[in-house]
Amino acid sequence: MRSRAAPRSPAGGRAGGGAGRGGAGRGGGQAARRTGGEAAARARPRARHGGAATTPRPRPRPRPRPRRAAPAARTRTAPGMRVAALISGGKDSCYNMMQCVVAGHQIVALANLRPAENQVGSDELDSYMYQTVGHHAIDLYAEAMALPLYRHTIRGRSVDTGRVYTKCEGDEVEDLYELLKLVKEKEEVEGISVGAILSDYQRVRVENVCKRLNLQPLAYLWQRNQEDLLREMISSNIQAIIIKVAALGLDPDKHLGKTLDQMEPYLLELSKKYGVHVCGEGGEYETFTLDCPLFKKKIIVDSSEVVIHSADAFAPVAYLRFLELHLEDKQTCINLKTLCREICCHCLYATSRILPYRRDKGRKKI
């Protein structure tokens, strides 16, 4: 069978002479044969141990080095934002502020929505969004933290109660929009501290307002385990008292004015018996914070009275009305930086353990 002719070299000889030809190709002069022989010798594959010639493997092409990604731009949730805290006076908004500080943010202002002063029964406003019980003490709350306070009167009501909120004139959510708009203009804040834990109704509306104002909502307590949260709040030196009860098993005469530390065992018991939310996310109770590591002074309640809002035989609704309060210097100030070393910072809308809880021995059961 006839073999295919080897290709000619640039000098005119054939570049692929056989093994027995000594490398010289046919035709051409001596110079051509010499040049062709050199080319053939270079092109001829070497035989291993006298065997047949092997075809050299082509060298793999070097893979291109992956380009380094450009450094990510600083996100809105990066530490160091100027933050305004949306507060009701309760434990949740207070503890979320502490988490903001642990995460590296700076609380620069407080924001609160209050009922109209001339409204009948203004202490307890029928609102899906806002806690209004204890609103008379919010001024002292801000003074205890030494921060500017921005307040706005609730003029709207719950108009759009759907799962998805859209801008609706006359809705109480628009009062929140006006409040946060003012705070952003005055304080140049980038984020809003929100103490929401379980309510999708509140979350959806706060996110709607923040999106319209280009603000970042910071809800570090969102969907946390409530038993863990309550323990952490107590361990984090939040001194909050019950100022409203509205659930089976909660007695206005027994439980109003009690601290979280005193109420914790009983709330856990109610949770097992009746499914009560331990942190009060079902509206079972509300709290007011008298002291925490963020306070430079603590709030002292000199006198108060119990107001029965609904005398239900099984689950009466009642609240505390503060009559006299004052601020008092703290004898021992807790170093927040030291406390922050013990507290594990949570990612936005994430869950994590914060502080170990040490149960006091000999605590009386209510």
Summed up, what is this model?
The chain is of the alpha/beta class and 366 residues long. Helix content is 27%, strand content 18%. The model is unreliable at 1-28, 68-76 and 344-366 (pLDDT under 50).
Structure overview:
Strands 3-2-1-4-5 form a five-stranded parallel sheet, sandwiched between helices. The model is unreliable at 1-28, 68-76 and 344-366 (pLDDT under 50). The protein has nine helices and nine strands. Helix content is 27%, strand content 18%. It has a single domain, classed as HUPs (Rossmann fold, 3-Layer(aba) Sandwich). Strand 1, helix 2 and strand 2 form a beta-alpha-beta unit. Residues 1-12, 31-42, 69-78 have a biased composition (Low complexity). This is Diphthine--ammonia ligase. Pathway: Protein modification; peptidyl-diphthamide biosynthesis. Keywords: ATP-binding, Ligase, Nucleotide-binding.
By secondary-structure content and strand pairing, the structural class works out as: alpha/beta
| Helical amount | 25-40%
The total of beta strands comes to 9
Which fold does the CATH topology refer to? Rossmann fold
CA radius of gyration is 38 Å
User: Order of strands across the widest beta sheet?
Assistant: 3-2-1-4-5
Beta-strand fraction estimate: 15-25%
Order of helices and strands: HEHEHEHEHEHEHHEEEH
CATH architecture: 3-Layer(aba) Sandwich
**Count, helices:** 9
* Shape designation: globular
Report how far the terminal alpha carbons are from each other: 107 Å
By oligomeric state, this entry counts as single chain
Can you tell me the CATH superfamily? HUPs
As residue ranges, the low-confidence spans are 1-28, 68-76, 344-366
How many structurally independent domains?
A: 1
CATH class: Alpha Beta
